[in-house]
Design brief:
This protein is of the alpha/beta class. The protein has one domain: Rossmann fold (3-Layer(aba) Sandwich). It is 37% helix and 26% strand. It has helices at 12-19, 36-53, 71-83, 99-108, 135-147, and strands at 27-33, 58-64, 86-91, 118-125, 150-159, 162-167. Strands 2-1-3-4-5-6 form a six-stranded mixed β-sheet, sandwiched between helices. α1 (12-19) crosses α2 and α3 packs across α4. The radius of gyration is 15 Å and the shape is globular.
Length: 169
């Protein structure tokens, strides 16, 4: 499967999910989010995928970043990410995350089947860009590259806790 390494536009989500091997039987999706707004954004994407493939073939597990510090939750989230066709990371920040998030990534990354699946980043865009802006996006892109997963990103500017779409699927 060809790897997409850049941010893709609206129509690319359909191409991405229908190009995955699981699109013909069942698609396993792991979603990691950090707050109610990013959860809602991930639900939007999840419903789009259900609309493309059919609700009966899409199965998802949902994990809050704040809960990844619990060993049992971390173990479950790692296990699901290893076997998921699609890993969605929906975050309200554009920079660093709590340490358990990085433990989660480092635990599933070496065990993925190379070249199968996709990583989708739903990220808050930096409001004031600096030379350090976008570190999280670059980190997730490198994770996708290392796992030989397809990569897509959607960004939204946060202002007063309200998301405004600037680039999405």
């Amino acid at each position: 499967m060809r790897r997409r390494s850049d941010a893709n536009k609206l129509g690319s989500l359909e191409k991405l999910v229908t190009g995955l091997p699981a699109s013909e039987c069942a698609m396993e999706i792991t979603v990691v989010y950090d707050e109610a707004q990013t959860h809602a954004w991930a639900v939007e994407v999840y419903k789009k995928i259900q609309g493309i493939l059919g609700a009966q073939v899409v199965r998802g597990t949902w994990w809050n970043v704040a809960d990844l510090g619990e060993p049992g939750v971390l173990a479950g989230a790692v296990s699901k990410a290893i076997w998921s066709d699609l890993v969605v990371v929906a975050l309200s920040c554009s920079e660093g995350l709590p340490l358990p998030f990085y433990f989660w990534v480092n635990a599933w990354l070496p065990h993925r089947v190379n070249g199968v699946g996709a990583l989708v980043g739903l990220l808050a865009a930096p409001v004031h860009k600096t030379t350090q802006s976008g570190r999280l996006k670059r980190y997730l892109q490198s994770v996708a590259r290392r796992a030989r997963m397809d990569w897509m990103v959607g960004e939204r500017i946060t202002s007063d806790r309200v998301f405004r779409v600037i680039r999405s699927f």
